[in-house]
Amino acid sequence: MDNLQYLEERKHIIDVARELNEIGLLVRTWGNISCRTDSDHFLITPSGIRYEDLTPEMIVLVDLKDMSYEGEYKPSSEKLVHAAAYNARKHCDFIIHTHQVFASCAGTLGIKKVFSYFEDEDVTIPVASYALPGTQQLADNVKRTLNKFKSSNGIIMSNHGTLCLGETSNEALFEAEMMETACRNFLEDVCKMDMPHGVEEMFSSHLENGDIIYDVHDTPERVKTIHKQVYSKRSDVKYIIHNKSEAVMMVSRRANHMKPLLDDFAQLIGVSVKIPSNEGEIYHNIKKKVNVLFVPNDGAYCFGPTKDDAEAVAMVLDKGCIAYIAAMRNGEGHYLSLFDCIKMNRNYRKNYSKLADTVAHEEKDD
Ligand SMILES: [Zn+2]
């Protein structure tokens, strides 16, 4: 391993990945990080490996001109976006792509720029138009935005996440943190919302040898019936997390239908989620390709084949609900098309089941 090319740079990327995870800007391990090594190459995090499992040889060296790479690890599926950004900002040598909560949510409102503030400074954050993740179109949209806003090294990718550039990793990290605070301020001012992001667990359960094990000893019978119905209708589900976070609770009280505003919602949760208006309707909403079940005025149950998956669904649902409430209060939002949602949902299931078969348990990067 000592003769690995760019060993120090590889280690540094891993350190930054872990730091981002610690400060909570990744929403689990979705996102990717890269570093320019010379005028023709950059190093980037691989596709589908958890950050805690990263080792230097897994970081992929990619040719900036033709995207070719060597070795057994595949570069992140957002390599085209990174390449476009290196071409647009010759002086930037470090890039972080995150799915951070408040910037991603501000990027679903259909606006071209987020005007806000950070500490005492005014901040303008450009928003690149939407395109499906991993596509050349998305890379072109990012390039156009970076060329148009020469002084911005942090941009939002509509309905998806952020792209933070810097001459150094510290500058890129600063962009990510600055954008998150500025976007949180924006949502507070414009959408009148100050909502924490997270999961408030209430009545969760999992299956063990066919038996349902409830996390809370005195789980009410009414709730147990919901768990039993989910496990009987969805043989793929082994974990259920009951999420009663502020945003999820608000949606379970006031909304009747959620369409995806964010890519990860379409991928992990489903393309269309109904919120029942009375108890009698609950069970009709246990669907094959929808990984949550809302209960009126009682939050939502989030499903997965593993605890990790159910937790991911619960986090992404909370972010999706914050975006939904922001769009409602803003008076408009840019919703993803049904066609794009179906495509992403299908791809994600396909890639995911392939990964789950071959590797112990890993997640797709973006
Ligand atoms: Zn992404």
Q: What would a concise description of this structure say?
A:
The protein is 38% helix and 19% strand.
Description:
- It contains 10 helices and 15 strands.
- It is α+β, with helices and mostly antiparallel strands and 366 residues long.
- It folds into 2 domains: 184 residues, 3-Layer(aba) Sandwich (L-fuculose-1-phosphate Aldolase), CATH 3.40.225; 154 residues, Class II aldolase/adducin N-terminal domain (L-fuculose-1-phosphate Aldolase), CATH 3.40.225.
- Helix 2 packs parallel to helix 4 and helix 7 crosses helix 9.
- The two termini are 28 Å apart.
- The site of zinc ion has 8 residues, from loops.
- Zinc ion binds next to loops.
List the helices and strands and how they pair.
Elements: H1 7-22, E1 31-38, E2 41-44, E3 60-63, H2 79-88, E4 94-98, H3 101-106, E5 113-118, E6 121-128, H4 136-148, E7 154-157, E8 161-166, H5 169-190, E9 205-208, E10 211-214, H6 221-233, E11 239-243, H7 246-254, E12 257-258, H8 263-268, E13 273-274, E14 292-294, E15 300-304, H9 307-330, H10 338-358
Parallel strand pairs: 6-7
Antiparallel strand pairs: 1-2, 1-4, 2-3, 4-8, 5-6, 7-8, 9-10, 9-11, 11-15, 12-13, 14-15
Helix pairs in contact: 2-4, 7-9
Zinc ion binds next to loops.
On the 0-100 scale, what is the average pLDDT? 92
Count every beta strand, where a strand is a DSSP E run of 2 or more residues.
15
Number of helices: 10
- Uncertain ranges: 357-365
Tally of discrete structural domains = 2
Distinct small-molecule ligands in the complex: zinc ion
- Principal-axes geometry comes out as globular
Order of helices and strands: HEEEHEHEEHEEHEEHEHEHEEEHH
The portion of residues forming beta strands comes to: 15-25%
Share of helical residues: 25-40%
What would you say the CATH architecture of the largest domain is?
3-Layer(aba) Sandwich
Could you name the CATH topology of the largest domain?
A: L-fuculose-1-phosphate Aldolase
- Write out the strand line-up for the largest beta sheet, numbering strands in chain order: 3-2-1-4-8-7-6-5
The CA-CA distance between the termini, in Å, is 28 Å
Largest sheet: 8 strands, mixed
Give the name of the CATH superfamily of the largest domain.
Class II aldolase/adducin N-terminal domain
* Derived structural class: alpha+beta
> What is the CATH class name of the largest domain?
Alpha Beta
Q: Radius of gyration, Cα only, in angstroms? A: 21 Å
